[in-house]
């Protein structure tokens, strides 16, 4: 259960207890500048670690988890939506489609005043 933190940025959904640790939860819809879902479905949190700190990313759904080689990664296409491009670390071609790879460093690159206490 995510607990809202008063006076935090709209990109910070709050904090939650993840295996005994209090972690900051980032709302990926807000981070990407997308509206809240109209269907009322509950989002799920995916845990990520960055430089020894744990975070939760609030997402709508998750597909297959893949391990991809670095040599298959390509630069962001020039026509990638700017909201996504600022958080993307490149793309991979999978089955004739492009899969955007989120750069966790960029996703969590929030101004200090936006971070939960």
TrEMBL record:
Superkingdom to which the source organism belongs: Bacteria
One GO term (biological process): signal transduction
Domain (CheW-like) ranges: 1-113
GO cellular component: cytosol
InterPro entries hit by this protein: CheW, CheW-like_dom_sf, CheW-lke_dom
Matching PANTHER family: CHEMOTAXIS PROTEIN CHEW (PTHR22617:SF23), CHEMOTAXIS SENSOR HISTIDINE KINASE-RELATED (PTHR22617)
Protein name from the UniProt record: Chemotaxis protein CheW
Organism: Bradyrhizobium rifense
């Amino acid at each position: 259960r995510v607990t809202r933190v008063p006076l935090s940025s709209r990109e910070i959904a709050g904090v939650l207890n993840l295996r005994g640790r209090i972690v900051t939860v980032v709302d990926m819809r807000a981070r990407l500048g997308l509206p809240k879902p109209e269907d009322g479905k509950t989002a799920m949190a995916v845990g990520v670690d960055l430089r020894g700190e744990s975070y939760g990313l609030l997402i709508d759904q998750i597909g297959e988890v893949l391990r991809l080689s670095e040599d298959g990664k390509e630069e962001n296409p020039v026509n990638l939506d700017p909201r996504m491009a600022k958080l993307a670390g490149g793309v991979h071609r999978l089955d004739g489609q492009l899969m955007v790879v989120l750069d966790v460093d960029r996703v969590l690159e929030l101004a200090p005043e936006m971070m939960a206490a």
